[in-house]
């Protein structure tokens, strides 16, 4: 990763200042209603959940301090817009949901937000709106990618095994012959000197993974690079691959190999785009149709 330039920082901060002022984020009565933006956003998230949503889930999704979230929920409760309940399966977990008045309020809030957005777009031509919509889509994808984290985790951890189970289910659906989950790496293969396991997180939720294991002196193998469908087309697979390559170099492994199934054409294209070249088969892996290699020392 290249260092972030002051110009990039200034451009993002300038946009943030202009846009937050333009949409009324600085007003204590956001959209002309009797609450600031923070409470309005919380009301929206509760409404989007449909049924009772655990407070801890809201806390993770919005990145809020527990005390601050509690104060906002109490404020909305005092207005008669939400109610707190115990989770039906675990009385220790508190959930929050909209009341009838809350549903009416969120409908009005959405109407006003739509009107504000319409007003912002009204001064543009149809072509300019299309360009803005495309630019906003790009900005949203890149900012999501920027907020994702890739962390080394224990290969036996619940997050690691959950990612691998989802990966196996994806392959079982895509491979004509299906996929046997016994082919997945074991925790021992991706622990200690044998290898490493990485998971990607978005708002505390695992949304991707990748494994690295030692094949022979100086040579590592990448396994099970997977991204949740909700987080695809962001560039996360490349970030996971970069993390695995960096870990290989840290271990003194300067050659990385991998194989992939013939039907996974998008994976093959990504590996080629990341500097991997196709090589003869280096293993008799039952699901392999293509084999790749990259010499990390050549990357400078």
Q: How far apart lie the N and C ends? A: 13 Å
**Mean pLDDT, rounded to whole units?**
93
Overall outline: globular
Proportion of beta-strand residues: 15-25%
Low-confidence stretches: none
Q: What is the CA-atom radius of gyration, in angstroms?
A: 24 Å
Structural class: alpha+beta
Percent in helix: 40-55%
Spatial strand sequence of the major β-sheet:
4-5-6-7-8-10-9
Helix and strand succession?
HHEHHEEHHEHEEEHEHEE
Q: In DSSP terms, counting alpha (H) and pi (I) runs of 4 or more, how many helices? A: 9
Number of extended strands: 10
Largest sheet: 7 strands, mixed
Structural summary, described in words:
With 300 residues, the chain is an alpha+beta fold. 46% of the residues lie in helices and 22% in strands. The chain contains nine helices and ten strands. The strands form two sheets. Strands 4-5-6-7-8-10-9 form a seven-stranded mixed beta sheet, sandwiched between helices. A hairpin with a 2-residue loop joins strand 5 (195-202) and strand 6 (205-216). The radius of gyration is 24 Å and the shape is globular. 22% of the residues are buried. The model has no long low-confidence stretch (mean pLDDT 93).
Give a quick precis of the structure:
The protein is built from nine helices and ten strands.
